[in-house]
């Protein structure tokens, strides 16, 4: 097997033995899964079952008490430039710079990641997410659904091998949800691995190849 074939076979994301406690409360006990290129795994479970906690442990936002996370075979390290450029993350609590416009946010992402033809890509993504007319607005003046679209747009103007999304359907209208499904199906076809948490049966049905059910917290 060539090195290229071996790299293709390797999961983009591997998680094993994840344990997370908050005081006496064990939220995650021995959670493990993998996500390969071109596939999507969804975390499902009731409110409080630990979906966001898994995503926070995977992205390094919250350290796990036990367990391993590796990206492309490399142990997760947020100082690694290759890992930072591989992983596009859209969580629920995304903050925006209050004094940068919509287009300036996307420009910043694209340029920080040295994306070629950043201007053209940012314009395309702005049109795609329906924010072209709002390009010069500040985030504080956007509707909550428009802010969600801006957060998602940020993931599509930067390099990525792995997309991590926490309930990406939130605050999107029906047309927005259909757009998101089409976009994420395309991302899968282009070889991205996707890990997302969701309460939307429509999104789960349209996208998920693997379902990780949480809810057995003690
Ligand atoms: N920083 C924290 N300190 C204490 N408990 C926490 C903390 N963060 C999360 N928890 C608890 O961990 C559990 C899992 O929370 P989490 O946000 O991962 O659930 P979720 O499955 O994403 O829920 P939802 O469907 O409501 O988004 C909850 O009981 C929550 O109260």
From TrEMBL:
Tell me which Gene3D superfamilies the record gives: P-loop containing nucleotide triphosphate hydrolases
Keywords, A to Z, come to: ATP-binding, Nucleotide-binding, Transport
Residue ranges of the TM segments: none
- Spell out the molecular function terms from Gene Ontology: ATP binding
What InterPro entries would the database entry show?
AAA+_ATPase, ABC_transporter-like_ATP-bd, ABC_transporter-like_CS, P-loop_NTPase
PROSITE patterns per the UniProt record, alphabetical: ABC_TRANSPORTER_1, ABC_TRANSPORTER_2
Q: Where is the ABC transporter domain?
A: 13-218
Q: What Pfam families is this protein classified in? A: ABC_tran
Domain of life of the organism in this record? Answer: Bacteria
State the family it belongs to. Answer: Belongs to the ABC transporter superfamily.
Report the protein name in the record. Answer: ABC transporter ATP-binding protein
Q: Which organism is it from?
A: Nocardioides dubius
């Amino acid at each position: 097997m060539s090195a290229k074939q071996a790299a293709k076979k390797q999961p983009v994301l591997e998680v094993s033995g994840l344990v997370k406690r908050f005081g006496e409360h064990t939220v995650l006990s021995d959670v493990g899964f993998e996500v390969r290129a071109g596939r999507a795994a969804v975390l499902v479970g009731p409110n409080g079952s630990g979906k966001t906690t898994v995503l926070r442990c995977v992205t390094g936002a919250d350290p796990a008490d036990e367990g391993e996370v590796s990206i492309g075979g490399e142990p997760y390290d947020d100082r690694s430039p290759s890992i930072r450029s591989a992983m596009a993350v859209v969580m629920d609590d995304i903050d925006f710079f209050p004094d940068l416009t919509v287009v300036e946010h996307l420009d910043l992402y694209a340029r920080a990641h040295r994306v070629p033809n950043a201007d053209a890509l940012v314009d395309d993504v702005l049109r795609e997410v329906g924010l072209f007319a709002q390009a010069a607005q500040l985030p504080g003046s956007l509707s909550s659904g428009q802010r969600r679209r801006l957060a998602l747009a940020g993931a599509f103007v930067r390099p990525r091998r792995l997309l991590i999304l926490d309930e990406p359907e939130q605050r999107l209208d029906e047309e927005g949800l259909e757009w998101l499904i089409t976009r994420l199906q395309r991302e899968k076809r282009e070889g991205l691995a996707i890990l997302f948490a969701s309460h939307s049966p429509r999104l789960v049905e349209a996208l998920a190849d693997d379902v990780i059910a949480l809810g057995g917290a003690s």
